[in-house]
Amino acid sequence: AWKKFSPKGFTTKDEFESEAVKHIETTLARSLFNCDELAAYSGTALAFRDRLIIDWNKTQQRQSFADQKRLYYLSLEFLMGRALDNAMLNVGLKNVAKDGLADLGFRIEDIIAQEHDAALGNGGLGRLAACFLDSMATLNYAAWGYGLRYRYGIFKQEIQDGYQVEIPDYWLDFNPWEFPRHDVSVDVQFYGWVNKYTNDEGKQIVSWQDGEIVTATAYDVPVPGYGTPTVNNLRLWSSKASSGEFDFAKFNSGEYESAVADEQRAETISAVLYPNDNLERGKELRLKQQYFWCAASLHDIVRRFKKSKRKWSEFSDQVAIQLNDTHPTLAIVELQRILVDMEGLGWDEAWTIVTSTFGYTNHTVLPEALEKWSVPLIQNLLPRHLQIIYEINLQFLQSVEKRFPKDRDLLGRVSIIEESQPKMVRMAYLAIIGSHKVNGVAELHSDLIKTTIFKDFVKVYGPDKFTNVTNGITPRRWLHQANPRLSELIASKIGSYEFLKDLTLLNKLEPFVDDKEFKKEWAEIKYANKVRLAQHIQTTKGYSVNPKALFDIQVKRIHEYKRQQLNIFGVIHRYMAIKSMSPEERKKLVPRVSVFGGKAAPGYWMAKTIIHLINKVGEVVNKDPDVGDLLKVVFLEDYNVSKAEIIVPASDISEHISTAGTEASGTSNMKFVLNGGMIIGTLDGANIEITREIGEQNIFLFGNLSEDVEDLRHHHFYGDYKVNPELVKVFDCIKKGTFGDEGAFGALISGIVEHGDYYLVSDDFNSYCQTQDLIDEAYKDQDAWVTKSITSVARMGFFTSDRCINEYADTIWNIEPLDVAEEK
Ligand code: 26Y
Asked: What is the value of ipTM here, to two decimals?
């Protein structure tokens, strides 16, 4: 019967207009006569939101009714970007909105551009979580995301005098995409002490007492699937003082200020996203965030399970929880605590439930990114959890000792507790021990974790606990939304937009690689996308670049291992070469625009130095009359998801040039190829599988292999090591002050010349520059280039996050999609 009362919402242009206008006039209380673009955005967003809510409610009812297993994706980061364009496309009514907005006097692009990015993430890990949500909804899985509702997302980056400056990102002013659920809250405890006693019935009782209580309030964000009525839920927790804490007693006894201070302290927990990416700093507030979010999510999940009135032994038939890196590892401990201390289960029974519920995804092998928390810190903040961690460790080590009685060293190596001063809890080890599956995010990476950082655990558990799920990206946002013309051209060739749901259908493009007309259109679309980026550069940077030049793009977080320094040294090398040429020689060159973008963690000084160098090189090169159009160096400020949607479709070549063995997967590499760009890359992360899929002739690979990295590093210190002479010339050029104050860049150079060149910039420099020359040559043959471009796109089907989510569902979560046929 509820169906009768659930209208489907608008479907025509006129209905859309009347809905949007109604919201502008009533919800926003604005007159249509002074409706600006922001008001038009708000009205449009609210109209689409209403439409989503209907399907969202139905989806939640359907999923509760079906009573199947659900997946919960725990991630401290969800880098969602903008929601409106995505909602319009997923619902399939973008054209309706376009026409309706045109009637009202607006261009849809301008309206879409009003929206503030939801930037609750740093980079790859957070964006992966967002792609996963899109796929889970599109594939009709009953899946929820759980995260934190940061008041401040990732900072906004400005460049002043060539330096990065961080500006707070207060993004919640007007956010139509979230729904506060004041009725859904969880009280979360911190500090206090543990009281163990035997009760009247002779039962051991453990009680965690006298802590400080902070309340978690749920904010729900609808996640629409593409071409399906499924709208899943992303639940974000916000912290506030518990009503018990911020209470009248304090007010009345004259402690107004201290009551306000309590309130602020509580709110601080969800105030800000930590801006470090792959760099662990061990801050207490971050641990508080982690526990706050894990506890709230687990209590919510358990509450939902208990409504089903099933036995505890059925918990993992109903619930799968995926840990996005080790950030949510405390969820393992919290579930054990709920089951043992609160629900009265025996330890072993509880532990079986816990380990069959969790899966853990590792995203890095970099030692500086592996989380460790000091024992005293946990002891103080979460005294009961520390006891449970010790108990988990004890049981685990006893089982290891039984199986490997002669290997005393092994026990120390696999212990959750590192015997340092102070002692540290190794979160990755806890995550492995508490999960039934551990996965890496690309083949090489999954092999590396088994042979390096988690080697001993392969010995203990056998190889089957460890698996690979190669990352993917959603083709809805990264092809259809970011590159609508290419998507349309593809659809026109292969007959429908079905490829957006089954990306392997792209292979139907291959027969057209020799179709002249098709190739021409393909090239025109790339050119139009470059013109659009050139316009963006013109408006944001104030100078023009030639869209006919080869666009060479590296956009990602700035990190030494990602080697933006290799790129900029290569640019300087090119600049020096141009300067030394005759005008005749210069005429033969392929003009190039080198585009950089990305944020540095505020405390990562070396990364900031790299940004500074890129900007200084740009200042000099871009105004050098000898160079003209032959080389331009652009640093795009504040790289984020919505800017990526403009940048990615405009590349001819993108750079994925990490030191082999350091980039777990990379996902922007997939986005660039899917948009018809070529890659220059090392044999690292998913570059390897991309090569396998698209063919070696369609990618520009260079550099040392991961298996040789260790020996090379050793050689830097103990061999007859010399820095590459061409690179030395680049350093001399910098040291001469060509790009301003040479002292500013000293550390960048000495890191390579004197301190062992950990990232092998010198070792790979030759091969990098030679490969760049090959690219210039290849680019001259535009016809062959377009062939490569089309062939590559046709072979990218594997890299959809749909494939990836199906693999997780089959091999780790053991869940099936829900049938929605009746609803269609
Ligand atoms: C511990 C804390 C400081 C921390 C915070 C963020 C540690 C790591 C991160 C983020 C890591 C991250 O983004 N990793 C990236 O994950 C992508 C998705 O799997 C990979 O494609 C990419 O190679 C990897 O660097």
From this structure: 0.98
